[in-house]
């Protein structure tokens, strides 16, 4: 599997307009493949829309996108509310869980770590050693590294019931020594996070 993360920076007020227009057309796109998650930022870079698309392979992505474009109903006309667009292809980490649907959130934290070149195998080893205990506290939705786009990025997405729930879980993980993996920070050169909320049509709520 590969996963495409598309990030649209919208003009002020444009994110909700984009979500409305996409929602009106999404059924036409879903005939070819479903989005895993479609969110907008609540905390972090504002007026941003993030969507996660799973594909079997690069060829499958090209085929699906081509068929959807021929449909005539996709993509919706949203270019007037978008300031810029970014697409990155991610490979799932060895410990990435199977993609799920349903009410896991409604708060999703997306964490992006830019790693030192060549360090991901060691980061993955440390994650695998610690992750089982961390998952006893709350689930992991996705974890992967960039194959195309900004390289050496490691993205992980965590669902929570609320922002307070996130704070409680993270505090408990740190207090009990469950998380983060020991020594992991030495491999990061940059870390970012954002809090995402789901669009009404997102399979993840």
Describe what you observe in this structure:
- This protein has 205 residues and is of the alpha+beta class.
- It has a single domain (2-198), classed as Alpha-Beta Plaits (2-Layer Sandwich), CATH 3.30.70.
- The protein has 4 helices and 8 strands; from the N terminus they run βαββαββαββαβ.
- The protein has helices at 14-30, 58-70, 120-135, 163-175; strands at 2-10, 37-43, 48-55, 82-92, 107-115, 142-148, 153-160, 188-198.
- The protein has an 8-stranded antiparallel barrel.
- It starts with a strand and ends in a 7-residue tail after the last strand.
- The mean pLDDT is 97.
CATH fold description: Alpha-Beta Plaits
CATH top level label = Alpha Beta
Major sheet description:
8 strands, antiparallel, barrel
CATH architect. name? 2-Layer Sandwich
**SSE order in H/E notation?**
EHEEHEEHEEHE
Mean pLDDT: 97
Strand order of the largest sheet: 1-3-2-8-5-7-6-4
Tally of helical runs: 4
Structurally, the number of domains stands at: 1
What proportion strand?
Answer: 25-35%
Cα-based radius of gyration, to the nearest Å: 17 Å
Helix content class: 25-40%
Please describe the structure with a list of short key phrases separated by commas or semicolons.
alpha+beta, 29% helix, 205 residues, 4 helices, eight-stranded antiparallel β-barrel, 34% strand, globular
